[in-house]
Amino acid sequence: MRIALFEPEIAGNVGAVLRLGACFGATVDLIEPMGFEWDDRRVRRTAMDYIDHVTVERHADFGAFRAAIGSRRLILFTTKSSGSAYDFQYRADDVLLFGKESAGVPAEVAEICDARVRIPMRPHVRSMNLATSAALALGEALRQTGTLPG
Q1: How confident is the model at residue 63 (pLDDT cuts 50, 70, 90)?
Q2: Which segments are annotated as binding site?
Q3: Could you tell me if 141 and 90 are in contact, meaning their C-beta atoms sit under 8 angstroms apart?
Q4: 101, 118, 132, 143, 147 from 113: Cα distances, Å
Q5: pTM for the full predicted model
Q6: In this model, does residue 119 exceed pLDDT 80?
Q7: What's the Cα-to-Cα distance from 88 to each of 51, 75, 120, 132, 137, rounded to whole Å?
Q8: Three-class SS of residue 32?
Q9: Which CATH class is domain 2-145?
């Protein structure tokens, strides 16, 4: 299972997702450009010592990312979907894609995803924090596929 972040803008969110990946054994794909300077000090501060326990792959752009993941299914988490993330049937090699904090993903990226799902929430709120969404999504996907760590 992989978590992919499309052009993430906030270093703290990336750090929290790196920690999530370390705890659950999920590779984290970072699709550039990012909205902050990637440097070891900043990343270590946000991911703490967990960065040594997660596989991180950086991709120059979405095309490079698509080439790197091959035929894996790409599951987009978006508020623009009506399908529940809890009704979707995950596979152990899925890639869970999350858009940039301010704008999600462009329409052309959404269109090529294999599936689009949303995390159900109350109607009068817009969205959850990126790292919170990734945690809910990854937890459900790992639970369904029987691949939660022991």
Answers
A1: very high
A2: 99, 119, 127
A3: yes
A4: 18, 14, 21, 22, 23
A5: 0.94
A6: yes
A7: 30, 10, 12, 19, 11
A8: coil
A9: alpha beta
Question: Residue 51: its pLDDT value, please?
Answer: 82
User: Nearest Cα to 44, choosing from 18, 22, 25?
Assistant: 18
Q: What is the separation, in whole angstroms, between the first and last Cα of the chain?
A: 16
Where do the domains of the chain lie?
A: 2-145
Question: Residues 93-112: what's their mean pLDDT?
Answer: 97
Spatial distance between the Cα atoms of 27 and 74, rounded to a whole number of angstroms = 14
Q: In the structure encoding, which two tokens stand for residue 22, read together? A: 């370390």
- The residue with tokens 């979707």 is 88
Numbered residues of the known binding site for S-adenosyl-L-methionine: 99, 119, 127
Please tell me what DSSP assigns to residue 33.
P
What residues contact residue 106 under an 8 Å CB cut-off, 6+ apart? Answer: none
Q: pLDDT by residue (tens digit) across 13-52?
A: 999 999 999 999 999 999 999 998 877 566 666 666 788 8
Res 2: pLDDT? 98
pLDDT of 46 reads: 67
